[in-house]
Design brief:
Layout lengths: L2 E4 L4 H9 L5 E2 L14 H17 L5 E12 L2 E3 L5 H11 L3 E12 L5 E12 L4 H9 L20 E5 L2 H5 L3 H9 L10
Parallel strand pairs: 1-2, 1-3
Antiparallel strand pairs: 3-4, 3-5, 5-6, 6-7
Helix pairs in contact: 3-4
């Protein structure tokens, strides 16, 4: 069986793949995203996941590479990851009391054959109306920094989410059901069966 490589430094993606019992190595892609023409969110996420997978696959000849990209789509705009408390605060005020969609795309690539499967999943998330004190407290926790949309549903940010429609794990960073189905196309079965 070929090695499986997760092309991501995300501890959440690593934990999710471990959760389903996959044996894999971690090797961040180091792919530098470049600004280009605006694209539809799912299309952009798929393109970025393909680039990340390709960057790692180019360094190996005997591996199956899994890469992903996640971001928030709010009122037609893509929200990335805040890097400062001020950015996080602005994002949280915007998301307060509103709905948004979390888009995660993943690519699975066989470095030897070039076979590639890329898919994207969207999950709708409704955030409760947040008070100034709640936003301040959450920002001070440090959790929003480096998280798409400025919150982590698997952490303290869970108390801000009223409901979701779709795959919870997609919001965390990797749609496990879709990934497991795609892995079958490479002969990798998470659950044995026909």
């Amino acid at each position: 069986m070929k090695r499986i490589i997760l092309a991501s430094e995300s501890p959440r993606r690593k934990e999710l793949l471990e959760q389903i019992g996959l044996q894999f190595e971690v090797e961040p892609s180091r792919y530098r995203e470049r600004s280009g023409p605006a694209a539809e969110p799912h299309e952009l996420a798929r393109a970025l996941s393909q680039e990340k997978a390709g960057a790692v696959a180019a360094r190996h000849h005997d591996a199956i590479v899994i890469a992903a990209d996640t971001f928030i789509v709010f009122q037609g705009r893509i929200l990335g990851k805040p890097h400062t408390e001020a950015e996080a605060r602005r994002m949280l005020y915007a998301l307060s009391g509103a709905g948004h969609t979390v888009v995660t795309a993943f690519t699975i690539m066989d470095a030897e054959t070039g076979k590639t499967v890329t898919r994207s999943v969207g999950t709708k998330v409704q955030v409760k109306k947040l008070t100034d004190a709640e936003i301040d407290c959450y920002v001070r926790s440090g959790e929003p920094l480096g998280k798409a949309g400025g919150y982590a549903i698997q952490g303290l940010g869970a108390v801000m989410v009223e409901r979701i429609e779709g795959d919870y794990f997609n919001v965390v960073g990797l749609p496990l059901n879709a990934v497991a189905q795609a892995l079958r196309e490479f002969g990798i079965r998470v659950l044995p069966g026909p």
